From TrEMBL:
Keywords: Amino-acid biosynthesis, Methionine biosynthesis, NADP, Oxidoreductase, Sodium, Threonine biosynthesis. This is Homoserine dehydrogenase. The keyword Cytoplasm does not apply. It comes from Dielma fastidiosa. Its EC number is 1.1.1.3. PANTHER family: HOMOSERINE DEHYDROGENASE. GO terms for biological process: methionine biosynthetic process; threonine biosynthetic process.
Length: 386
């Protein structure tokens, strides 16, 4: 099968490397790059038309990132009858329904294994379990960059900015790493996972998200004292045909499985009625693990196994985060009466005030944090898993 590759950065170069080693039926026919200086041989071009109009190319692999022109390129490829494999969760989450419907209308495959969980075989396994079971919970660590940062901060007291730079060097972080540290990347992956598990399209505005940007070493010291570890989690819970979907830092007991996920690793968990709990663990970011997931999709298309993994988003489910409740840790730079009123404990020092609230709904806590930020508070919060 002949492949047109869009983007040859971290993941794209990994795809080239794995396909060249495989020496199988997959062949990179053309590679789209931005600048003529990046054209290393005759396969390289700066003109998308050279790929999408090439009748020999069967599959377009989109690993450029970003929303535009990725959206337009994917739609054009599908419309012209080319299968598409993409690792770009941002463009997928924003246009999921349109991509899936366009692929169906033009009898093409649209495969996205690398978009969520990096090298972990999450998407296809989620599809497998969803075809038998009601998946009532999905949770886990879905971002390698933030897990790397949190792990280093917990283990060696490393400084946030220094570890972020390291994650960028290692090829884990997004082009704009605020997508990682503000939880947007996990929000995209939650939208994709909810779609796969429940055949529904969840809109970005429906998924409250809070990241780790304002986490400090003082917070980490507090968590150590309480024998807790902070991880950035996504949660998708399905109850009575309603979905709770949210992304927030969470304090886990230090001996729990998730608390001990190191480096750039992810853990993606699902709970189904007949299968019970399943956990998928592996590298959630990085050149070769992610490229491996892309090449798995290519092999599934080549062998036609892809026909078992058609994505369908034909249901409408209400998203409601009002009934999802737990206690929260909140650190503010100055005293806050509203937080004091709803807290079961609080303490203060020169670095600010540290509250542990009673049980609050996810909807309420995320709304409250927005209001407090608008009022000029600097704050970090994390759900507490008892
Ligand atoms: N890195 C990872 O661990 C993972 C990444 N992903 C996703 O995979 C995608 C690629 O990520 P990654 O490889 O890390 O990103 P990189 O920034 O390393 O690579 C992207 C490449 O695409 C090129 N590019 C961007 N826009 C265009 C364009 N319009 N035309 C031609 N080339 C273009 C960039 O060129 P230039 O450098 O000149 O801008 C760059 O070489 C992203 O969507 C990311 O979210 C998914 C899972 C894991
Ligand atoms: N930036 C992402 C890359 C993989 O999806 C991450 O760190 O997880």
């Amino acid at each position: 099968m002949k492949i047109g590759l869009l983007g040859c950065g971290t993941v794209g170069s990994g795809v080239v490397e794995i396909i060249e080693k495989l020496k199988g039926s997959l062949e990179i026919q053309r590679i789209l790059v931005k600048s003529p200086e990046d054209c290393k041989d005759a396969r390289y071009t700066c003109n998308y038309a050279d790929l999408v109009n090439d009748p020999e190319i069967d599959i377009i692999v989109e690993v450029m990132g970003g929303l535009h022109p990725a959206r337009e390129y994917i739609l054009e490829a599908l419309t012209k009858g080319k299968h598409v494999v993409s690792a770009n969760k941002a463009v997928i989450a924003a246009n999921f329904k349109e991509f899936v419907e366009t692929a169906k209308a033009h009898h093409c495959y649209f495969l996205i294994e690398a978009s969520t969980g990096g090298g972990i075989p999450w998407i296809k396994n989620l599809q497998r379990y969803a075809r038998i079971d009601d998946i009532f919970e999905i949770t886990g660590i879905f971002n390698g960059t933030t897990n790397y940062i949190l792990d280093q901060m917990h283990k060696s007291g490393a400084d946030f900015d220094a570890v972020l730079k390291e994650a960028q060097k290692l090829g884990y972080a997004e082009y704009d790493p605020s997508a990682d540290i503000d939880g947007i990347d996990v929000q995209n992956k939650a939208i994709i996972s909810a779609g796969i598990a429940h055949n529904t399209y969840v809109y970005k505005e429906e998924v409250p998200v809070f990241g780790i940007r304002d986490l400090t070493c003082t917070d980490i010291d507090y968590f150590h004292r309480k024998k807790k570890v902070c991880k950035l989690l996504a949660v998708i819970r399905c109850l009575n045909d309603e979905l709770a979907v949210y992304v927030e830092p969470t304090l886990l007991n230090e001996n729990s499985l998730e608390a001990n996920v190191p480096d750039n690793f992810n853990i993606c968990s699902l709970s189904g009625v007949t299968i019970g709990d399943l956990k998928f663990y592996g590298q959630g970011a990085g050149k070769l693990p992610t490229a491996n997931a892309v090449v798995q999709d290519l092999l599934d298309i080549a062998s036609d196994e892809a026909k078992d993994y058609e994505i369908v988003l034909d249901k409408t489910l209400k998203v409601n985060n009002e009934n999802e409740t737990h206690a929260y840790y909140v650190h503010t730079d100055k005293a806050c009466e509203t937080l004091q009123e709803i807290s079961r404990a609080y303490e203060s020092n020169a670095d600010g005030v540290f509250y542990e609230t009673g049980k609050l709904s996810v909807a309420k806590m995320h709304e409250l944090s927005k209001q407090l930020r608008q009022q000029g508070y600097k704050l970090f919060f994390a759900g507490i898993r008892e």
